[in-house]
Every structure is written in C-alpha cells, then in structure tokens.
Amino acid sequence: MAWVLSSLKFEVVWCNSSFSSCLVQNRSSSLPSTDHSISLNTRSIYYKIHPLLPLSATTITIFIMHKSSSDSTLGPGGLDLSQAFFRPINNAAPPSPTKRHNKISVIGAGNVGMAIAQTILTQDLTDELVLVDTNSDKLRGEMLDLQHAAAFLPRTKIHASADSSVTAGSDLCIVTAGARQISGESRLNLLQRNLSLFRAIIPPLVRYSPDTTLLIVSNPVDVLTYVAWKLSGFPSNRVIGSGTNLDSSRFRFLIADHLDVNAQDVQAYIVGEHGDSSVALWSSISIGGVPVLSFLENQQIVYEKETLENIHKSVIDSAYEVIKLKGYTSWAIGYSVANLARSFIRNQRKIHPVSVLAKGFYGIDGEVFLSLPAMIGRGGILGVTNVHLNEEETQRLRDSAKTILEVQTQLGI
Ligand SMILES: NC(=O)C1=CN([C@@H]2O[C@H](COP(=O)(O)OP(=O)(O)OC[C@H]3O[C@@H](n4cnc5c(N)ncnc54)[C@H](O)[C@@H]3O)[C@@H](O)[C@H]2O)C=CC1
Ligand SMILES: CC(=O)C(=O)O
C-alpha cells in the first residue's frame, strides 16, 4: 500500500466567519482517489481548513499524504478511477455553501468508544467519523473492521490515527479514553489516572477544533467534565458530560419492567452524580402523561417507600453488576451517547439528564458539574429544565454536589 505526497491547489470561494469551514474550488486537473480529508465526488469540494493554514491567501496549496485503504482505488499509473468511471456533468455548480458537513471524533477506541462509534454509524449521524487511540494496532484494526461494513451502513468516511490532528474541524469530540473500573471499584477511584490523560488529550482537541463541543464520557465523568471545561477554556454550554443519561435509562427500564409498560413512555430522571450519590426524582415521574406518585396518593393506593429505594439502589448497582459479569459496560453507554450526539448534531432541542455546570441551580453554589435535565441542540447545552424537586430531593442533590466538590478540591485545578 503506497503513500503518495500530492500538492493540490484550491481557490477559496467562501469561508464562515471563524474560518473553521470553507468552500474551496479545486484547480488541479486530477485528484487522488482517496485521502483523509477530501470528498472527491465533484471538482468543487468542502475542506475543513486547518486553523494554522494561511487563510488570508485566496489560493491555498494543501500538501497531503494519502493512501488508499484498499489497493483497488488507484488505477494503473495512478489513473483516478473515480474520475474515469463517472462522466462529469457540464457546468456543474458547486454544492451550496449552506449545506453542513458533520464531523464527529471519538477519543479512545476501547469498549465504550467503539460501542458509541458503531451506534453513530448505524444511526447515520455524521459524514465523517474519526477514531483516536494511543494503541495504533488496535485502532487500525477497529477502523478496518468498521470500514468493512460499508456495504451495510449509511455512507460515512471513517478515519483513525494516534495523532489528534486528524480531529481538526470536528463538530463534536467525544472523549472515552482512560482507565475503567475493575470489579467493585468506584468511579471516583479512577480520577488520578484519568486526570493526567486529560491533560494530554484536551488541549490538542481544542487547538485543532476551536469551535467544537466536548462530550465527556470517561469516569469519573462529572469531575472529568469539570477538568475538560477548565483545560479547554470553553464556555460551559460547549462542555457536556454524559452524566446520568445512562442511569436514567436504567431507571426507566426498571420502572417499565415493574409496571409492564414501554420504557419510552416512562418519563423519569436520575440527577446528580453519575455514581453512588445519584438522586432519583420520584416526585416528577410520569407514565403516559400520568404523574405516578400523585396518582397513587389521589387513588389512596398504598406504596412502600422501600420499594422505590430498592429500584434506585438497583440503578446504582447496575454498572457494578455488569462489570462483575462481563468486565465492562458498553452497549447501553453506546446508545446513550449516540442519543446525545443525535440531539446535538441534528439540533433536536431534546431534554437529557446530562452533566452541566450546576452553579446557581437548586441552591448549589460551587463550580461543580453534575446531571440536571438539560436541553441539547447545536449550541450544546441550551438551558436547564425547571423541574420541581421536593425538599428531600433538593437536599440529596446538594449532598451529591458536595461529594463531587470534595473530590474536585483535591485536584488543584
Ligand atoms: N460515563 C459513563 O456512563 C461510562 C463511562 N465509562 C468510562 O469510559 C472509559 C473507557 O472505558 P472502556 O472503553 O471500557 O475502557 P477500555 O480500556 O476498553 O478503553 C480505553 C481506551 O482508551 C485508550 N487510551 C488511553 N490513553 C489514551 C490517550 N491518551 N489517547 C487516546 N486513547 C487513549 C486505550 O488505549 C483504550 O483503547 C472508562 O473511564 C470508563 O469508566 C464506561 C461506561 C459508562
Ligand atoms: C461504567 C459506568 O460508569 C456505567 O456503566 O455506568
């Protein structure tokens, strides 16, 4: 498989105000058949310009090292088969500059990163999917394995590299890299190991994609979301932790199972820490629009508080149980994070319990990230829902904030 250095001349036709996305017109007579950044279907292409390129010039030259992931794309003597196979349409107009080209990067191609990547692919959420990991062999293996499913998936350009420059121009960077719990270990225990990784991971992501939104998954997710916020210097709406989106799905599953209804008809939130101090919001649970606790009380149906506590305890124990049985959790977090990515990329304005900067909400006054039901769209966190918490829930939420803050103060960030 040969590496080829090509120089391509492009004329800049249009750029957005931050120069993170530009429409450029190809001026070369032939294009290489594959590369890592350029779509080759037409002679006018979108190219996410590297922030360091000389953008003042109206003509730019891009040097690219390109190689084919399969040997068959280059014809004899470097003939561009894709150009030969299709006859170009006369006077074709370039694509509309208002059309968006989405790029999502997943940092960490372990169990969690790959579950997220494959769910994103099957749900057709992005034009480009980038994987980054320090384990180059595993990374290339994972990339090829996904690329080989191309005939069964929506078309997505998949790249992988140990070098984070491959993430340049990402709309969303999902960070899953890091140590995971062994059986019985708490998430907070992972902090020191994952903190040093974050110091290496976050600054290059920010440098290569200054307009990106960071979605943190690595544990302990609330503290590491705070760390990512501090290291990135981003506004807090562009730093999100996957938080209790997963716990809330586990909660909804258990309630739905208990009552034999569809989990999608159960509206129920777990808030606070993604971990042992999480808080179940029983007072606002509804099923098919019926508020559960007030319905039971109005009908004078007796329920035991212990039953509710046991369901919440099962939510907290879920990860420990799965880790004890299979060593790690992956599928549910994969769907959970892909669901968040969909709300972001497709500007769904959907409400998810995710880790946000909680200062000022429910009497929390420290700089702490924890989960609250929040609206997610293209601008990241668009707002926090004004859910009513009863006194006990409010107190538990403040206690959860205190638990996270105590860990955070040891960081010295
Ligand atoms: N927030 C949540 O709800 C959940 C969070 N997690 C967390 O996700 C993290 C990953 O878990 P798994 O995927 O099971 O672990 P894993 O061990 O399978 O994968 C971690 C990957 O990170 C890579 N990595 C290490 N340093 C890196 C660096 N500097 N740059 C890029 N990649 C690097 C490793 O090579 C490895 O492939 C853990 O912290 C785990 O606790 C897991 C499940 C749910
Ligand atoms: C590992 C983890 O955080 C979870 O599955 O909830």
Q: Would you mind describing this structure in some detail?
A:
A hairpin with a 7-residue loop joins β12 and β13 (279-280). With 413 residues, the chain is α/β, with parallel strands linked by helices. α2 (111-122) crosses α9 and α4 (191-208) runs parallel beside α5. The strands form 5 sheets. It has a 6-stranded parallel β-sheet with strand order 7-6-5-8-9-10, sandwiched between helices. It has a 4-stranded antiparallel β-sheet with strand order 3-2-1-4, with no helix packed on it. It has a 3-stranded antiparallel β-sheet with strand order 11-14-15. Helix content is 33%, strand content 21%. The radius of gyration is 24 Å and the shape is globular. The model is unreliable at 1-5, 29-57 and 69-73 (pLDDT under 50). The chain has 3 domains: 2-66, no CATH class; 103-241, Rossmann fold, CATH 3.40.50.720; 245-411, Lactate dehydrogenase/glycoside hydrolase, family 4, C-terminal (L-2-Hydroxyisocaproate Dehydrogenase, Chain A, domain 2, Alpha-Beta Complex). The protein binds 1,4-dihydronicotinamide adenine dinucleotide and pyruvic acid (PYR). Residues 107-113, 132-135, 176-181, 190, 194, 197, 200-201, 217-219, 221, 242, 246, 274, 328-329, 333 line the site of 1,4-dihydronicotinamide adenine dinucleotide.
